[in-house]
Amino acid sequence: MARRAAMLPRHSDPIVAVATAPGRGAVGIVRVSGKRIGPLVETLCGRALKPREATYLPFRDAAGQAIDQGLALYFPAPHSYTGEDVLELQAHGGPVVLQLLVARCLEAAAAPAPGAPVPSSPCLPGLRLAEPGEFTERAFLNDKIDLAQAEAIADLIGASTEAAARSASRSLAGAFSQEIHRLRDALVHLRMLVEATLDFPEEEIDFLRKADAHGQLSNLQQSLADVMRKASQGALLREGIKVVIAGQPNAGKSSLLNALAGAELAIVTPIAGTTRDKVQQTIQIEGVPLHVIDTAGLRESDDEVEKIGIARAWDEIAAADAVLFLHDLTRTAEPGYAAADTAIDALLGERLPAGIPVIEVWNKTDSAAAEAPGPATEGRTAVRLSARTGAGLDDLRRLLLEIAGWQSAASEGLYIARARHIAALQSVDAHLMEAAAQLHAAGPALDLLAEELRLAQQALNAITGEFTSDDLLGVIFSSFCIGK
Asked: What residues bind GTP, as annotated (predicted)?
């Protein structure tokens, strides 16, 4: 299989690592994975262990002194997380204790195996510390999970909202992979028809017409569109969007961040220029993570520290997915205020990439001095609100979800997805569109049609890992923690 062909010599080494998060806790786990680790189990535990049965015992060093006491579990291959023999030592969750257990595993692996025919034969030759994500990488290479499921494990661990966690769990259970497999099976069937027409032209049988190849391709494209829609929503749950609050000093940017977050995150004072650097908080609206950034007030300044904050504010604005351009309703009559807003607006037009939405937010509607806002810039949406009282915040939240592309009605049953999945599905879509053009041509070039279908299948296979480069695997699994 393609996965096994991708295995490197290092994948044969037995590995060990702490499998729980860094820091102190009630329980910590040290995990060993490899082939034929039975002798190491006996050396570490003083006896053989029953498969998949927790055994309470002392973990001893080479001199027989107890390092700790805890539970030992042995999972013989292939019925384990990695598909190899796996030993888990569950001890107290102190970092020193866990490092002592890792060191003991490495020491015991080099010691003579109990009852070995050659007395000097080591318990488990080549045992080494695991690299980031190597346990999950082996689960993938040993066909325990596919690549999309492996990525879902990292996404489940890193989920920032409940909706993202549930979607990652569905991907881990195989929901996304099943959709991809259904697309692939339909694509393989269509490819078979095309190849049959190419291989047996002398039969003068129009395989494509009789098998309704046009209808099959159309159905395939419709199914792909549905998967792409769900995947884009799943990617939104994983990534969220970056929203930057911009405007003049004292327009209420920090107050708006605090109101959206529901906590006093940024310092709010009547003094202009209080915010000198960005303040960032991730909030969730209907499960969608929004990374909201409060920036320094935009103005001309002689203060070197403030100037640095303003420069950083423009950097954040340039990298935003959406900008909230905040206006102070109580100051619209002040000389120079409208001119300063106009200058900021001009700079937004220069520095924002095309297509990045800007929402005009008119703040301080609770003030008796609030004036009616001027018309919003053409193509922009305007919102009136009070960051102090919360009036109008729901309208702003709804707008942010619309900008993000969130579809509330379609949120049930979503699976998590990544940018590379979206790119692969877009590639499949492009190849199917080209295939449709060939199929509908007056004199279809069947060899080109077959090639487009082959490339579409190759892009689909890359999602689940049936066709994946070693370089891509390295990038994906290097983002995992060491013990996973």
From this structure: 250-255, 269-275, 294-297, 386-388
